[in-house]
Amino acid sequence: MSEVATAMADPSRVSMLCALMDGRAWTATELSAVADVAPSTASAHLTKLVQGRLIGCLSQGRHRYYRLASSEVAMLLETLMGVSMRTQPAMKISTPVHLRKARTCYDHLAGEVAVSIYAFMQEQGWFTSEGTALSPVGLTGFHQIGATLKNQTRRKIACACLDWSERRPHLGGNAGAALLAAFESHGWVERIEGYREVRFTDAGRRALARFFAIHDV
Fold first, then answer.
1. Collapsed DSSP state (helix, strand, coil) of residue 169
2. Which run of H or E residues covers position 64?
3. Which of 9, 47, 117, 133 is most buried per CB count within 10 Å?
4. What is the pLDDT of residues 44-75, one digit of tens each?
5. Exposed, middle or buried by CB within 10 Å (0-12, 13-18, 19+), for 17?
């Protein structure tokens, strides 16, 4: 734990990790701009993050790209965001409105809409009693939506991921990733290039009302 904490214990490295929460692979140059540090300094920070196994490096030709090492790292970061906000209860939430509404958390949906979706699923019994798998009701719901779970993965099927802006859980795990993938394939959400923000299309708003009784997006 101390090694992981040490790898993260720098504002520039935290900025890089938060940028990588959009699920994309970034170049060292892009991450140096995000952290507002020189390329040589960024390289040293990235080396520490790789050594701490928080990020991985991909090489394509002459270019090197960095991304979060796993969904578990993304969940850790999201949880830490929530914990850091709870340590200052008097502080008002300053998250931009567009990011509070809907954004990505690594490979699944986060924000106000995602929290509402998860609450609906819980109320309607989409999960087993442990909350780590889909119930028959949930499996039927996913089938109707057209969301397909990945096979042969060690990742939990479903889990509650603490939403740092709403301070309530949204859906993570295999099911969370499958849900976002379905939303994108159906054209229900559009990613904003270069940001974690996503926008719901007209078709997406109709789908939210139909499947999750959400009408105010």
1. strand
2. strand 63-68
3. 117
4. 999 999 999 999 998 887 888 999 998 888 87
5. buried
